[in-house]
Design a protein that fits this description.
Helix Hairpins, 9 helices, 27% helix
Amino acid sequence: MTELDYYEALEVSRNCTEAELKKSYRRLAMKYHPDRNPGDKDAEERFKIINEAYQVLSDAEKRAIYDQYGKSGLDGYGRGGGFGAHNMDDIMDIFNSMFGGAGFGRSQRRRENQKYSLDFEVEYSLKFNEAVFGAEKKINIKYKVPCSDCNGTGAKDGKLDICDYCNGQGQVVMKQGFMSFAQTCPKCHGEGQKIIQKCQSCSGRGYHEESDTITIKIPAGVDTGNRLRVQGHGNQDKNGQRGDLYLTFNVEEDKHFIRDGNNIYTEVPVFFTQTILGDTIKIPSLYGELELDLKVGTKDREQFVFNNEGVPDVHTGQKGKLIAQIKIIYPKKLNDEQRELLTKLQESFGVESKPHTSTFEDVFDRVKSWFKK
């Protein structure tokens, strides 16, 4: 049986950075976590593998040994030592984002016999300019409230029995190689109890959904993948308290500006004569107009950098750069007059207009000599 490579498991290259490794691990852990895939054995197995891979590759020493010797090189190195502080911080960050802080010793965001997490996440699309400059938006959401008929249990008259899969613990211990960790019971979903007969009012879900419209202020500089916490607009528990809503942004692209972090790239088309003669032109920026000085001999794809003309950093407000890249445009067709003028211009430069002549003059003779007998 072929052994799965840790880098392949995390879908990263062997020379990936720590940030790239963490980003990919976060994405995969959220995708394959058992709580998001109840009863899916393949997802459960994948979740174990990516945790094992990250436990090794996020440790600089273990990664170096793995790169040189593979998994066998880690034998006796303490592979069963569990997650270090660095690993645990990453894992807690992921689980907090998914489940509002549930599990691993942090404050529980899911109350006893509650069928859902108090915090929930929504993907929200923003226009390019809204992300750059910030915006105030009204959004429609649906949040969960406990079913009053079954007191949020999902069971008729609130009658529950102990889960026979986890013996009422709400968690089961899973082992994979050198790793051993607890995960939510897939049968009772962490409640430790099971429904005898479903509540007719909520069909056994334990909750109803209510609609709400809220107004949020989006700070300037957010980007795709950024998350905004909206406190007190999550799901509701039995005591009437509400968790938090997390908005994950997806920013639309712009047809003229390309964003890279806090920097902005834009392509500037110029006619070939402008680069030969030089010119001063106006180009659009995020904040109005800028003057670009085309010097004589400006090259195709040459870049001009304007500081503090990019996107404001969402934390500090410091603006990035605007990078204008030149694209030289040549005429596709010439009329007789244009052709005559260009011919005269070329001839006016004399020998300089045909640099290939002097460059290849002796090359032709040398090549011919190679075939002489």
